[in-house]
Specification:
alpha/beta, seven-stranded mixed β-sheet, 17 helices
Length: 401
């Protein structure tokens, strides 16, 4: 079955579980109107294709979870008290409204019932083009709409987007594909992850995609492949992709276990989508002329680029600062980081920067000491629990609009 729909409508849908082309029941063709400034027209363009199973998609679209009724009533009541909406008392008789004489005499007007901070929507990651071959723990797909907003707020498009802690690279890839910057510099310290980016960006994308689609995944073949330490960079790249796809949570750090049951009892096959991986890798190959990759210390590279006013920096370090859970310490091979040094170097940058962290009091205090602006942003983690992360920058007014 094939369904064609508008991109804006698709973004209102809940996240749909994607499957490989060989398992597809429904192909969703998502179209958008893309401005053509030369001809001064909007061109209907295929934005992306999403493959799903019928039953899983139907359940996701038709299943809704009710929110907290008491909290909902309290929010409306609080807003109604401020705005003098007396009629609310007849709608929610159990929600007490205490209004002053000044509020009662306010002229009639139509107001929003919710504060902006309360009604800010959590991004549906299914509405964001999936560019990366990694299923990366701590990935920033959910933040892409904010990254677009940030980069488009500049008077001129940045000449370079620098990402010192690339990981899965969704921000760098989005900037390259959508021309949010002229060029992209990706930096990664982990040699496994670096091998993947070196292979794809140095002309070996076709080899890697063929290696993936030609691999017959079984528990035995996976174990044999991961025991093999021979081969050069591209074989390391293949083993890294394999490990990332069959380890629980996509974790590459030592000690990570394999997927056992997986989604719908598929075990190791739960996240092994060869054709999808091939398509993403070959797509990246088409924009590699705009991407430069560097294996090394991200903070050191930032320091070397500090005087470049035409560069923008997206900084997403391992979350090991503050007194929180410090998830980065178990997710990444290189999780140890001097956060004070990172903030100090960020303060020397001539170009603008956007940093993400755990929403932690110690991190907020660190940002305050360096004179940085902070803003909590709602998101969902990999277990679909609602939480907030912290945006940090010099001036985040663009994010408050």
């Amino acid at each position: 079955m094939a369904v064609a729909l508008d991109a804006r409508f698709y973004r209102t849908l809940p996240a749909l579980e994607e499957v490989d082309e060989v398992e597809v029941d429904i192909a969703w063709f998502v179209y958008d109107l893309v401005p053509n400034p030369v001809q001064n027209v909007n061109v209907l363009t295929l934005d992306k294709t999403v493959y799903t199973k019928f039953e899983a998609a139907l359940l996701a679209i038709t299943h809704f979870e009710a929110g907290n009724e008491a909290r909902f009533i309290q929010r409306i009541s609080t807003k109604a008290e401020k705005l003098g909406r007396l009629k609310m008392a007849t709608i929610f008789p159990n929600a007490p409204l205490t209004l002053t004489s000044d509020q009662i005499s306010e002229p009639a007007a139509q107001y929003s019932l919710f504060d902006d901070t309360l009604r800010e929507a959590i991004v549906n990651v299914a509405s964001v083009p999936q560019r990366s071959p990694f299923r990366y723990p701590g990935g920033k797909t959910w933040l892409i709409p904010r990254v677009r907003q940030w980069l488009r707020s500049f008077p001129r498009r940045p000449a370079h987007l620098v990402e010192p802690f690339t990981g899965g690279g969704i921000v760098s890839l989005t900037a390259a594909f959508e021309r949010l910057a002229d060029y992209v510099l990706m930096i990664e310290l982990d040699p496994q992850v670096a091998a993947v980016w070196r292979t794809i960006l140095n002309g070996e994308a076709a080899w890697l995609s063929d290696r993936i689609t030609g691999f017959d995944l079984t528990p035995e073949s996976a174990a044999a492949a991961l025991r093999n330490t021979s081969g050069g960079t591209r074989e390391i790249a293949f083993r890294t992709i394999l490990k990332n796809r069959i380890n629980r949570g996509g974790i590459l750090a030592p000690g990570a276990g394999l997927v056992k049951h997986g989604e719908n009892g598929k075990g190791l096959m739960s996240r092994w989508y060869p054709e999808t991986l091939k398509r993403r890798i070959l797509d990246i190959d088409t924009v590699r002329s705009r991407i430069t990759f560097c294996e090394g210390d991200g903070i050191a590279v930032m320091y070397g680029w500090a005087e470049r006013a035409d560069a923008a920096f997206f900084i997403d370090p391992p979350y090991t600062a503050g007194a929180g859970k410090k998830a980065g310490s178990r997710l990444y091979l290189h999780s140890a980081l001097d956060h004070e040094r990172l903030f100090a170097v960020a303060g020397t940058l001539a170009g603008d920067f956007l940093m993400t962290y755990d929403n932690d009091r110690d991190v907020e205090e660190l940002a305050r000491r360096h004179g940085f602006d902070t803003l909590p942003i709602p998101m969902k983690n990999t277990h679909h629990a609602e939480m907030t992360e912290l945006l940090i920058g010099r001036d985040l007014d663009w994010a408050r609009k």
